[in-house]
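Marked as duplicate of an earlier ticket. Keeping the data here for the record.
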Amino acid sequence: MIRVRFFAAAEEAAGAAEELRDEATLDALRAALVEDHPGLAGVLPRCALLVDGSRHDADTPLAPDATIDVLPPFAGG
């Protein structure tokens, strides 16, 4: 199963720090996350999605054991 970890505002919108998923592609994962967690609709488009530590903006296949980090923009200095 794919492990999805949510951080900051994404965690708040999802209502959990992480969950297990089974979508086959990054685009399918994005759509399913918004469907299951409507609060992510306003947050997810601004988030960086890291697939096993590398940023991916385009659709990409997901390995069954992938870890996806959902990182909203961070402010600070």
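See parent ticket for discussion. The CA atoms of residues 8 and 76 lie 13 Å apart.
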